[in-house]
């Protein structure tokens, strides 16, 4: 496989991941960004720990990761000492999925 073929494969995988994200976005209530990952979730619990660490528990989640075979997870636990961004999605901001013609 040439370098060009590999780059095209990675670009195709990223596009497929973006399309999946766009399709599943209406199913979720929160966007969670950490230094390492981007998540969609329906429930986010935040627990502060000692020593400046933060623990998150995400329930009913989707993980932005091109290399995972399954991006859906029942429960995700994140522990970090870095910044975390949690946004609640407004249902009016979520685009409606396209309607397929019959």
Number of helices: 1
Read across the widest sheet, the strand sequence of neighbours is 4-3-2-1-5
Topology as a string of helices (H) and strands (E): HEEEEE
Q: Which ranges are low-confidence, i.e. pLDDT below 50, for 5 or more consecutive residues?
A: none
Helix content range: 10-25%
Mean of pLDDT: 87
What's a concise summary of this model?
The protein is of the alpha+beta class.
Structural commentary:
By secondary structure, this protein is α+β, with helices and mostly antiparallel strands. 22% of the residues lie in helices and 37% in strands. The protein is built from 1 helix and 5 strands; from the N terminus they run αβββββ. The chain has one helix spanning 3-24, and strands at 30-33, 38-48, 54-63, 72-80, 85-88. It has a 5-stranded antiparallel sheet with strand order 4-3-2-1-5, with no helix packed on it. The longest helix is centred in the first third of the chain and has 22 residues, at 3-24.
Question: Which key terms come to mind for this protein?
Answer:
single chain, 102 residues, alpha+beta, 5 strands
List the helices and strands and how they pair.
Elements: H1 3-24, E1 30-33, E2 38-48, E3 54-63, E4 72-80, E5 85-88
Antiparallel strand pairs: 1-2, 1-5, 2-3, 3-4
